[in-house]
Amino acid sequence: MDGILVQSIHTADQLLDIMPQTESFLQNSQTQFPVRLIVIDSIAALFRSDFDNTSIDLMKRSSLFFKISGKLKSLASRFRLAVVVTNQVVDYVGDGMNGLKIGNLEELYSSGRRVCPALGLAWSNCVNSRLFLSREEDEKANNCSVERSEEDGGFGSRTTRRWLHLVFAPHLAPSSCEFVIRREGISGVDR
């Protein structure tokens, strides 16, 4: 964990409150080992419990989205670093905002369920590029990662196929790739 700084944040307000300290840290760390990546996992978790589904709370939440994303974009530009922010997905529940096309994919599926981004349209307007990770359990697939199930004591096996989809990026063409996760690390699957 050398060279990795972890900061626990539990609310969107806490994230905004630590931004000045983050900026100061980034400025002071430029001479030693400059920070090149900020990861927020997960942005949706910061908003899930603090806001109700009322118009006032939704406006307040959207305002925080834009403040947070604006500050993160400013840090990325100023300090030449990448920012990765994970969202969560929720089950697709039908027509309405959930039914909007999100980037290049008509529908998003993972683990056999149709899903959509948890924070919806307001958050999708705050990000520059969107990636979607999905997985499927596949009994008949060849050349896929085989994972041992802890429930069966590690003796049984299941085959998991994983994909990374470029859902939206203004400067890149739509694309997807399959990958595997093994003890040695992550690698692409040639087909």
Automatic annotation (TrEMBL):
Q: Which GO terms describe its biological process?
A: double-strand break repair via synthesis-dependent strand annealing; resolution of mitotic recombination intermediates; t-circle formation; telomere maintenance via recombination
List residues of the RecA family profile domain. Answer: 1-89
Name by which UniProt lists this protein: RecA family profile 1 domain-containing protein
Q: Which InterPro entries match?
A: P-loop_NTPase, Rad51_C, RecA_ATP-bd
Q: Name one GO molecular function term.
A: four-way junction DNA binding
UniProt superkingdom: Eukaryota
Any single GO CC term annotated in Swiss-Prot or TrEMBL for this entry: replication fork
User: Which is one Pfam family of this protein?
Assistant: Rad51
The record lists the organism as Linum tenue
